[in-house]
Amino acid sequence: MFLQYDVIVVGAGHAGCEAAASAANLGSKVLLITMNMQTIAQMSCNPAMGGIAKGQIVREIDAMGGYSGIVTDKSMIQFRMLNRSKGPAMWSPRAQNDRMLFAATWREMLEQTPNVDFYQDMVNSLLVKDGKVYGVITGLGHEIRSKAVVVTSGTFLNGVIHIGEKRFGGGRVAEKAATGITEQLVSLGLESDRLKTGTPPRIDGRSLDYSKMEEQKGDEEIIGFSYLDIPKPKEQRSCWISYTNSTVHEILKTGFDRSPMYTGRIEGVGPRYCPSIEDKINRFPERERHQLFIEPEGWNTVEIYVNGFSTSLPEEVQYQALQQVPGFENVRIFRPGYAIEYDYFPPTQLKHSLETKPLENLFFAGQINGTTGYEEAACQGLMAGINAHQKINNLEPVILKRSEAYIGVLIDDLISKGTEEPYRMFTSRAEFRTLLRQDNADLRLTEMSYRLGLATQKRMEKTLAKKNGVEKIKEVLKEFSIEPAESNDYLTEKNSAALVQKQKAQQVLLRPNIDLNSMVTAIPRFGAALSEYTPEILEQAEIQVKYDVYIEKEKDLVKRMAQLEDLLIPENFNYDKISSLSNEALQKFKKIKPRTLGQASRISGVNPSDVQILMVFMGR
To answer: Domains of the chain by range and CATH?
Structure first.
């Protein structure tokens, strides 16, 4: 009944879908196993992609030839570029999506991907011999063999759902938990632990009074996520903002004695940066109100997602509290909020390729590694799929550096530092964020992905055209002289000093309040010199010119840091023979087995003196 597969992907969430696509597009024969073919790529929580740092990840996935950016663009109902008032290193794209269209688009793209097969069943255990994984055993008793297995189990491993004092097994509401894998992996030497996440109630939008809320419209210009030319929606749906108040908080407090979080029924640690509403009230008692984002679930549905009201309190408490939120006086709930507790495997047990250290040919991606968020999961899936393919073909693993991508930062953080709470990406986690902008992910990653065989010829040609266009624009800026007569009205309008003699265009552009697009429009002769270039290429050239000093500083820092990254530590290095290491450093080095001195320096609890001692001992 079953073929021999190159790669089996367990789970069809965001990580599993990207893993299946990347391995298949590299040439591996892939089987994607899911417990429910109707929930492939389901947006289990909010109907949105991107956001601070997360938007950068989606653009990196797209630049690498992954599907998340394309799917997001095809299913978006609203687009916003966040942090436009800050420097470009902070600009982050975010889209609201049609939940059903998003999942349908993902499934359609996977079905159109050669080399991807599907099977609906639960995976109960792995086939293992001599420390190597060679397939899976399903709930129906089928043994399906493969050369590598990628596990992307999301919140399903021994998942338990909590609503007030009610508790029942499940990986999502109305979907059963996955059992067997955790117990087997623990018996084979891996460590597991528990984490918690939550979701807010879903609301009937017809029961809300939007006149009492603030409207939040999308951007006039929809930039989108994919570097390919995906058609954008001609209209957008608004989101809305409302706020909790002291009455809401008092009602919520009446349910605290029945909250699974405060009665000890939930053992797992929840996400620090996306806390439940009861957590917010507890941790910030001085706050009189908390912001709620009222997000539509799609084009053709009345269902509403109440972002900011994640909760596991009893249903009647959720309902009574929501009624006191402005605009929610007559609210009707489709589904109450709930918390879910699930198994994960601390990611220090992984190599940078996302292959487990104890078991060969077994890869983990997504929430099983302790992350939270669609974007964090998707990028791990992309890399796990790539590296599963590389491993079974005796090719070098693909490991992105911290200076190359947010994806590299995320994976290195997980493996070097581990996580004891759901890990979420932020711009502050990246020390080279001026280099890792959302606008240049294609310039950073597409060429490498193309050489690998993942990014298409079309992507490569588009990237090269952008790269060459940027260089030509920079040349024009250096050479083109602007006359006072043709520019002073424009400069005055921009609150910038008038020219007294002609000046190179680059010097004018470097002034505060001046941007390249408005220069092109306001100064016809200059505009004619740059008429062939798109707004995207003009913006890229402008960023490179305006932020040149900061970009070069970061590049110098990358070169200095690379000296440590290039110093490899032998795989079986004996740390016990270094008596002068601190006890904590000794324990961490032996457990994590860092690949390089650079990674060793980033391990939590390791001091610079420990790294220096290690460096000296290695003869450096």
So the answer is: 202-337 (2.40.30.260), 459-551 (1.10.10.1800), 566-617 (1.10.150.570)
